[in-house]
């Protein structure tokens, strides 16, 4: 009998269809994948997963909440079937999992005090003006700041964008870096802080755009490919934007980037 690993492309899709349910790894991050106040699973990735898996013949999705740093190990140790957390595709992660093509692209943005008194619009500005800098636990923005010349040990690491906003409002830091989307949403109710215009961080000397996608175990190419086919249809019809819009995504975050480009190949 052939095992899953020797079956070309894996047999997970067949097994999910038979079971009628797919387990989604989520990291409790708004707006990407989280459990809302009514105890319901939502977020851009789970809502998209519900639509795509239904089209693939899998009617139910079941959340498996975990820490962001445990998503890839949890996937590879079979705790869930797919990562549905809006995870950025990067070369390091591409060595451990396979990704669908991105369902969104994302630029960075800063939370600064109203009027942006220090004129901070890029990581280079932060370094040049010796600004006090904060970002979130495990965020890609840590690396972007370091690449611009900011000393990693000088970065204030806070749990999330709400803590980042508080730090800027209280004057503990001059700037908090996050994704354009999370920053845009969190400053809406603030009287003291604002979001800067979204910008591309510089990576390896070139302007860089991030893309978030679903992650699968490396053996499950058949499921990943079937997922991509449905994703492409949703992009083409405009349905993808309708699914993501309620979570604060704009047309600017729609993308034709591929996982291959972001994996560096």
From TrEMBL:
PANTHER family referenced in this protein's UniProt entry, alphabetically: ARGININE-BINDING EXTRACELLULAR PROTEIN ARTP, MEMBRANE-BOUND LYTIC MUREIN TRANSGLYCOSYLASE F
Protein name: Ectoine/hydroxyectoine ABC transporter substrate-binding protein EhuB
Domain of life the protein comes from: Bacteria
Gene: ehuB
InterPro entries found in the cross-reference section: Ectoine_EhuB, Solute-binding_3/MltF_N
Coiled coil residues, start to end: none
SUPFAM superfamilies: Periplasmic binding protein-like II
Residue ranges of domain Solute-binding protein family 3/N-terminal in the record: 21-251
Cell inner membrane as UniProt keyword: no
Keywords on record: Signal
């Amino acid at each position: 009998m052939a095992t899953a690993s020797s079956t070309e492309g894996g047999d997970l899709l067949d097994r999910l269809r038979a079971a009628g349910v797919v387990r989604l790894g989520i990291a409790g991050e708004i707006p990407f994948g989280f459990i809302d106040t009514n105890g319901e699973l939502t977020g851009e990735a789970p809502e998209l997963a519900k639509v795509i898996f239904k089209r693939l013949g899998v009617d139910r999705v079941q959340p498996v909440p975990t820490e962001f740093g445990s998503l890839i190990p949890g996937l590879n140790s079979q705790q869930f079937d797919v990562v549905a957390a809006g995870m950025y595709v990067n070369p390091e992660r591409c060595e451990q999992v396979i990704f669908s093509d991105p369902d969104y692209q994302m630029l960075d943005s800063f939370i600064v005090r109203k009027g942006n008194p220090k004129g901070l619009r890029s990581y280079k500005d932060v370094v040049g003006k010796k600004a006090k800098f904060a970002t979130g636990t495990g965020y890609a923005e840590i690396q972007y700041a370091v690449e611009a010349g900011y000393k990693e040990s000088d970065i204030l690491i806070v749990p999330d964008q709400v803590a980042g906003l508080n730090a800027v409002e209280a004057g503990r830091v001059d700037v908090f870096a996050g994704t354009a989307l999370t920053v845009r949403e969190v400053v809406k109710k603030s009287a003291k802080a604002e979001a800067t215009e979204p910008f591309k961080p510089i990576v390896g000397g070139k302007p860089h755009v991030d893309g978030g996608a679903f992650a699968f175990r490396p053996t499950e190419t058949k499921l990943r490919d079937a997922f991509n086919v449905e994703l492409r249809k949703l992009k083409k019809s405009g349905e993808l934007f309708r699914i993501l819009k309620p979570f604060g995504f704009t047309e600017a975050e729609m993308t034709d980037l591929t996982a291959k480009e972001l994996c560096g190949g």
